[in-house]
Design brief:
- The chain has 121 residues and is mainly alpha-helical.
- It folds into two domains: 61 residues, Orthogonal Bundle (Arc Repressor Mutant, subunit A), CATH 1.10.10; 36 residues, no CATH class.
- Helix content is 64%, strand content 10%.
- The longest helix is centred in the C-terminal third of the chain and has 17 residues.
- 7% of the residues are buried.
Length: 121
């Protein structure tokens, strides 16, 4: 599932607030806030994609995520590695460590995370 930038921004609001109503979503946007009709359109598209659902309370709808943030991010990262790094996590790691200007402590922490993951395998 691929979300547009606007849909992704809205999804972050829903993840953060867990079960927001439309008024909560609109309040969470920074200025200039989008029109309620724009948000409603985004929500409809996201429901069609199966990432958001709602529960009705009278005339109000309470929205909730159908996809966990961690799962969405994991899928996007795997797609990035496949598309830009020839499906090679090693190429990604090499690029990441060289291009992000990490200091020695940050690199040591990454090394520890990798070593811990190796031990668990």
């Amino acid at each position: 599932m691929k979300l547009s930038k606007s849909e992704e921004e809205l999804m972050h609001i829903i993840w953060k607030h867990q079960r927001p109503f439309m008024k909560d979503i609109l309040e969470a946007y920074p200025e200039p806030k989008p029109a309620p009709t724009t948000v409603a359109t985004l929500l409809k598209r996201m429901m069609d994609k199966g990432v958001v659902a709602y529960k009705s309370f009278g005339r109000s709808r309470q929205y909730y995520p159908l996809v966990k943030k961690k799962d969405y991010f994991s899928k996007q990262l795997k797609g990035l590695i496949k598309s830009f790094f020839n499906d090679s996590p090693s190429q990604f790691a090499s690029f990441f460590t060289q291009q992000t200007d990490l200091n020695k402590e940050e690199l040591e922490e990454l090394k520890k995370l990798i070593d811990d993951a190796i031990k668990k395998k």
